[in-house]
Amino acid sequence: MEKKPHSAKRESPPREAAAALLVLLVLLLNALLYLYLSELRGSPGRAEAEPSLCPFGYFRLGSVKNCSPWLSCEAINREVRKLKCVGEGAVKKVFLSEWKENKVVLSQLTNIELKEDFLHGLKMLKALQSRHVVRLLGYCEKQFTILTEYHPLGSLRGLNETLHIPKYKGMNTWHRRLMLAIDYVSIIRYLHSSPLGTLVMCDSNDLDKVLSQYLLTSDFHVLVNDLDALPLVNKSSGRLVKCGHRELRGEFVAPEQRWPYGEDVPFDDDLMPPYDEKTDIWKIPDVSNFFLGHVEGSDIVRLHLFDIHAACKRKDPAKRPSAQEILDTYRKVLTLLIREVAMPGTREML
Ligand SMILES: Nc1ncnc2c1ncn2[C@@H]1O[C@H](COP(=O)(O)OP(=O)(O)O)[C@@H](O)[C@H]1O
Ligand SMILES: [Mg+2]
């Protein structure tokens, strides 16, 4: 049988062919990486639009195809059965409950003096339904109750404990943790450019407080849940905000949130200057540090985020980056580091 003449060629391909092959391989890997990242992120169009597939005032739960109207007082009283208390904050007591074989959450106002906060939270929940916000299933204003979707992993306060459960250990990686930080910054970005305008996440005077306002979903995403303290900033009309009427202290809150006139002058809310949404930006590095935790690779991520985090901590709020800029940087770092893992040492080539 005749030997194929090009078989020798295959054994020692010319340099150009090898280079072309390498370029092809790099392009293929890039395409795969792109697909992988878009899968992780979800395409913005689809993801942002997803909840609006149900019109305002309606929700869809689990695998049910149809949209149902938000439950009314009557439907809540008739069809929802309280099971047990799963959380409590300053404003609400939160009960795991059952509705038509679904696990849901019934939140009830605990202190009538805080009814304005409760009603503000409900108004925000209605107006901001999106992929970033816990799903509203119904409410009853006269009984001060809100019905939402139940998330068994609870608030972000329990993140480290959850990541140590054997079932979730595989999630305890720098890249999953960075993705949670990306989710969190996406939420701040959404609140700062929401359909209602620029909203400040005021219920955030310490790390624990911040974490308790967000939920961890079973597929490891972050949702904002507590929207009770969400005032509106409008810089062009000079409208600024204050997070509460009491003096705030400590490094966690932004410098402009602290009493500026020294220890000798007693705190007076009327003299306290208002501020804008850049207080949320000041807090992002601390929250992200919590997300990154201490796993293999998290310090490398920290190193890559060093400059943007330093910018978040600028004393002058106007000099801090926007949430969008931070989000862009986080996403770039994720892409870069995933590439590094997939193809070590190829950064310059790409
Ligand atoms: N949908 C939910 N699924 C699971 N846990 C929840 C849910 N909503 C609230 N919780 C738990 O209840 C806590 C208090 O809820 P939150 O709405 O922040 O109340 P408050 O307004 O009083 O601060 C949360 O930190 C969380 O642990
Ligand atoms: Mg809360």
Polypeptide structure, described:
This protein has helices spanning 7-11, 15-41, 44-49, 73-79, 115-127, 159-164, 174-192, 207-212, 278-292, 298-304, 306-312, 323-342, and strands at residues 58-59, 68-69, 80-88, 92-99, 102-109, 136-140, 145-149, 198-199, 214-216, 222-224, 232-233. It is α+β, with helices and mostly antiparallel strands. It has 2 domains: 44-60 and 68-150, Phosphorylase Kinase, domain 1 (2-Layer Sandwich); 151-342, Transferase(Phosphotransferase) domain 1 (Transferase(Phosphotransferase), domain 1, Orthogonal Bundle). A 5-stranded antiparallel sheet has the order 3-4-5-7-6. Strands 1-2 form a two-stranded antiparallel sheet. A hairpin with an 8-residue loop joins β1 and β2 (68-69).
Helix-strand blueprint:
Layout: H1 7-11, H2 15-41, H3 44-49, E1 58-59, E2 68-69, H4 73-79, E3 80-88, E4 92-99, E5 102-109, H5 115-127, E6 136-140, E7 145-149, H6 159-164, H7 174-192, E8 198-199, H8 207-212, E9 214-216, E10 222-224, E11 232-233, H9 278-292, H10 298-304, H11 306-312, H12 323-342
Antiparallel strand pairs: 1-2, 3-4, 4-5, 5-7, 6-7, 8-11, 9-10
- Given this structure, which CATH class of the largest domain is correct? Mainly Alpha
The profile of the biggest β sheet is: 5 strands, antiparallel
Helix-strand pattern: HHHEEHEEEHEEHHEHEEEHHHH
Bound molecules: adenosine-5'-diphosphate, magnesium ion
Strand order of the largest sheet: 3-4-5-7-6
CATH topology-level fold name of the largest domain: Transferase(Phosphotransferase), domain 1
Radius of gyration over alpha carbons?
25 Å
Percent strand: 5-15%
The span between the termini is 46 Å
Q: What CATH architecture label of the largest domain applies? A: Orthogonal Bundle
Output the CATH homologous superfamily of the largest domain.
Answer: Transferase(Phosphotransferase) domain 1
Total strand segments: 11
Number of domains: 2
Per DSSP, the total helix count is 12
Which regions are unreliable across 5 or more consecutive residues at pLDDT < 50?
1-12, 37-49
Average pLDDT value?
89
Q: Looking at the structure, what is the overall shape?
A: globular
Structural class: alpha+beta
State the helicity in percent bands: 25-40%
